[in-house]
Amino acid sequence: MRRGVWTAIGAALLALIIAFTILQIDWPEGDMDELGNEEVAETMFGASDDTGYGLVLFLIGVLLLVALLGGVFLAKEERE
Questions:
Q1: What is the pTM of this model?
Q2: Helices (H), 25-79
Q3: Cα separations in angstroms, 76 against 62, 66, 79
């Protein structure tokens, strides 16, 4: 029972961090079809430390890694 509680708390904390990060981003407005390589790079990673989507991409990468490891763990056969 105690392990399930800690798992739920960890999942809720991760969801709050991701939601907070997504809500803090200043999403660009307008037509994005006319952007060149430099504009796309500046939009994705920002011109300074407080702009861009670098943190969001990092969090999505961590989430996908955890999902992959969880899938491998669940697919692993138990030895008796």
A1: 0.43
A2: 37-45, 54-75
A3: 21, 15, 9
